[in-house]
Amino acid sequence: MNVWSIAIAEDHEQDMLSGIIPAAFSTGSLLGGLVYGRRTWSRTTADRLIIASAAFLAGWLPPVTLPAPFAATAAIAVPGAFLTVVVACAYVTTDALAPAGRTSEAYAWLILSIGVGQSAGTALAGRLAEQPLTSAVLPAAGAAFALAVLLAARRQLRPAGHRPRGRHRPLRGRHKTP
Asked: Cα–Cα distance between 111 and 106 in angstroms, integer?
């Protein structure tokens, strides 16, 4: 997004866009986090992570149309609004899945994964900065990749012992100990 905002600023000869667009993204992120934190959610964190990731991806689709500067600035707040939700759900899901005593290591892997994704995306965006459409598509492509990974791993995103509703089968001949 940062490379894309610089490309838009250069294309429209409005240097301030290189700062205003990321600021709009951050503002959306702040507002999205406030809304998310004020609500009580009935779905599992893993489900919320997948739904937020799908919304994050959908939020990156309007910038692909290469909107005018004002529209681009307004549109970029939408994926920003879901970034905080995705990150919050990723941390809670990581906490739920980490084996006892390995939470710090699990968080380190999560942070590493986010950092590598951002670095790879920025490096690729830098190479493709002269291609406005390609530069605009990269955040959506990254979000689509992340969503695909989450969907592929959906069953593994549930803590051990969790059974989805409607699939519980009683144990026959065995008794659970407390």
From this structure: 9
DSSP 159: P
Angle between helix axes 17-38 and 77-97 (nearest 10 degrees) is: 50
Query: Per-residue pLDDT tens for 73-109?
Result: 999 999 999 999 999 999 999 999 999 899 999 999 9
Tokens of 149: 């990974």
**Mean local confidence (pLDDT), 8-14:** 91
89 within 8 A of 52, measured Cβ to Cβ: yes
Q: Which among 134, 124, 140, 132 is positioned nearest to 10, based on CA atoms?
A: 132
* Neighbour count for residue 130 (Cβ, 10 Å): 9
CA distance 134 to 123: 13
Measured in whole angstroms, the distance separating CA 160 from the mean position of its chain's CA atoms is 24
> Whose CA is closest to 55, among 73, 36, 27?
36
Q: Which contacts qualify for 114-118: CB closer than 8 Å, 24 or more apart?
A: 114/87, 114/90, 117/142, 117/146
User: What distance, in Å, lies between the first and last C-alpha atoms of the chain?
Assistant: 51
H or E element in which residue 30 lies: helix 17-38
CB 78 within 8 A of CB 57: no
